[in-house]
Write a structure and sequence with these properties.
Order of helices and strands: HHHHH
Largest sheet: none
Strand content: under 5%
Bound molecules: zinc ion
Low-confidence stretches: none
Oligomer: single chain
Mean pLDDT: 83
Structural class: mainly alpha
Number of helices: 5
Length: 133
C-alpha cells in the first residue's frame, strides 16, 4: 500500500461536496485522490474526472493491451509497409491490421494449428509444419 492508498483508505468523506453543489471547495484535498469522489459523489471537477478516466484507460489497457508501436500499422501491400514493424508476426497484425505478410500469416497459422491441436490432439499427424502456406 502506498501513502495515497493508505490515506484514501482512512480518509473520511464527511463534508465532501462535489462540483456543482453548494459549498464545493476546489481546494479540498480529497478531489482526485481516488475514484470515490467521481463514482460515489458524482464530482466532475477536473481532478476527479482525470482520476476516473485514468482508471478506465487502465482497465481498457489491461483488457486489450496495446501494441507497443503507436504509429499507424501498415499491412503488406500498403505504401508504408515496414517489415521491421514489431507488430508483424502477431495475431493483431493479422486480424486487426489485416496484414497478410509471411510473419502475420505465420502467427495466424500457429494460432489455428494450436487451436486444432487443442481440439483434436491427433491432428498434428496430419499437419506438415513446413508447408503451412
Ligand atoms: Zn472533485
Ligand atoms: Zn504483417
Amino acid at each position: 500500500m502506498n501513502w495515497i492508498e493508505r490515506y484514501s483508505a482512512s480518509v473520511s468523506w464527511k463534508g465532501f461536496i462535489p462540483l456543482g453543489q453548494e459549498g464545493y471547495d476546489e481546494n479540498d484535498p480529497r478531489h482526485g485522490i481516488n475514484k470515490s469522489p467521481y463514482s460515489v459523489y458524482g464530482c466532475r471537477c477536473p481532478a476527479c474526472r482525470k482520476v476516473a478516466s485514468d482508471y478506465s484507460r487502465d482497465r481498457k489497457r489491461r483488457l486489450n493491451p496495446p501494441v507497443y508501436n503507436t504509429t499507424k500499422f501498415a499491412p503488406l501491400g500498403s505504401e508504408d509497409y515496414n517489415p521491421e514493424d514489431t507488430r508483424h508476426g502477431t495475431l493483431r497484425g493479422y486480424n486487426r491490421g489485416r496484414c497478410r505478410c509471411k510473419a502475420c500469416k505465420q502467427a495466424n497459422a500457429d494460432r489455428s494449428l494450436e487451436y486444432s491441436h487443442r481440439k483434436n490432439p491427433d491432428s498434428k499427424f496430419r499437419v506438415d509444419p513446413t508447408n503451412r502456406f
